[in-house]
Amino acid sequence: MSEPEFVWRLTSHLCGACLGRVLERLEDDGRPLYRCSNCGVEGEGRQGLSHPSICACGSKLGKRDAGIRCIRNPRPRPSLPGEFLAAEVA
Q: Of 29, 31, 59, 64, which residue is most buried, by most CB within 10 angstroms?
């Protein structure tokens, strides 16, 4: 078995397109690259943001922030087992 081409790190964020887990790796120049572990959408890192560029945290309603944030699942259970959720926050 050969070595992987890249090493990806799990983040605490979910993809804005499909809610799959977002992975992160560093480009050769040190910039982060994000990739959804489910649908494969990719996006480069952006300066000044606390969340990945492809994250559900960046969801908008028109031009306004939709108030969706990725949070740790406070009560994992068989019907909702994910470690993180995209939830509306006040």
A: 59
Please give the model's pTM, rounded to 2 decimal places.
0.85
Nearest to 25 by CA among 56, 4, 1: 4
R_g over Cα of the chain = 14
| pLDDT tens sequence across 35-84 | 999 999 999 876 556 677 899 998 889 999 999 999 999 999 999 999 99
| Exposure letters 11-25 (e unless 16+ CB within 10 A, then b) | bebbbbeebbbbbee
Residues written for the chain: 90
User: What token pair was written down for 42?
Assistant: 């990719």
- The Cα–Cα gap between 2 and 85 comes to 34
Largest CA distance in the chain: 48
Nearest to 6 by CA among 20, 23, 22: 23
